[in-house]
Design brief:
Number of helices: 4
Largest sheet: none
Helix content: 55-70%
Order of helices and strands: HHHH
Oligomer: single chain
Radius of gyration: 46 Å
Structural class: mainly alpha
Distance between the termini: 107 Å
Length: about 190
């Protein structure tokens, strides 16, 4: 079986090694749902609002159990607020595995992303090398073409030759175009 589950439409996270064989779509979806849920909780615990809320909860707890009448208190200050300590310990004992699970899922996504980045970089490198070879081939082909300075020099040479031919023709008289031989037109007898 491939590295990714064929039934799962979420291709940005790999399937765990222990879940590859014999897992059904329902199990993968259930694990994915649970993973998303724990990531949501871990993400919420990392916000300032969670810290503000937890601080307000603890302050309310301490205020209530310190200043309210003794008959309505549910946690004793004399015992060091044992219930609050137990609640915070329970919260921490669940928070740590959720954070680790979220971190493991992020590591898996990062691995997939790095593999995709590596493949993209290989394609980009191959494309860049191809384009570099094409540019070199074009430069070599362009070197064989005449540039404007070469054409100007050739045109000047041809112009000088034409001017030289014209000046020789007018000096000889007969060779100049449109000139008549000395003595007028020649009539041929029939």
């Amino acid at each position: 079986m491939s590295r990714f589950s064929r039934n799962n439409d979420n291709f940005d996270s790999p399937v765990r090694a222990g879940r590859r064989r014999g897992s059904t779509q329902r199990n993968v979806s259930g694990n994915e749902s649970f993973g998303r849920w724990t990531e949501g909780i871990a993400r919420a615990m990392g916000t300032p609002w969670f810290l503000v809320g937890l601080t307000l909860f603890c302050l309310a707890w301490l205020t209530w159990n310190t200043f309210s009448p003794e008959q309505v208190r549910f946690d004793s200050a004399a015992l060091g607020f044992t219930a609050l300590t137990l609640i915070l310990s329970l919260q921490a004992s669940y928070a740590a595995p959720m954070i680790l699970l979220a971190q493991n899922r992020q590591d898996d996504r990062d691995r997939v992303q790095m593999e995709q980045d590596r493949q993209r970089a290989e394609r980009t490198l191959a494309d860049t090398e191809y384009l570099a070879r094409e540019v070199v081939a074009l430069r070599l082909a362009i070197q064989d073409l005449a540039d404007k300075d070469f054409l100007r020099a050739e045109l000047r040479t041809i112009l000088r030759e034409l001017e030289a031919d014209e000046s020789q023709g007018s000096a000889n008289g007969a060779d100049a175009p449109g000139s008549l031989p000395a003595g007028g037109p020649v009539h041929h007898a029939r």
